[in-house]
Amino acid sequence: MGNNNGLGLGNNNGLGLGNNNTFGPDNNLGNFARNIVIQPSVVAGGGRITITVDGCRGGGNASSRAFRTLPLVPVNGNSDTARGVATIDNNVRPGPYDVTADCNGRTLTRPNAFTVLGGVHGGVGGSISNGATPTDMAIGGGLVSSAVVGGCVFWLRRRLEKRI
Predict the structure, then answer these.
(1) Which residue from 1, 51, 58, 133 puts its CA 20 to 30 A from 40's CA?
(2) Cα–Cα distance for residue pair 28/22, rounded to 1 Å
């Protein structure tokens, strides 16, 4: 508290409440991004997240290495809050990602804003192949052949029974 150059209350040159050089209730510089909220905070590749930015009057844009730059639209028309929905790229590597909001020419970055999970591979033992493998084809061919032979045997026996 008091006069300082960092975080605190009072006269300062950093982030805080009071007479300061960034933003707060005592001056008119509060018209820029000051908080970024991501929902959900954990998502798989190809999933969607909602980005909400406080202090983004009139809208702006948001960007990340995990998705394309997207517009932020004011919530309820003339609100101090803007929102956008991003679709995570399918080929993004798993891990944490930052989000940067640009509102009224000022930027704010939230480090590790959300986490992308790795994809889950389906199939036997987590197989990552696409389509049928040679083994699948051999098994399928064997089953079809067995069905054809069994059907022929059944048909021939029924035919021979009618002659007796």
Answers:
(1) 58
(2) 10
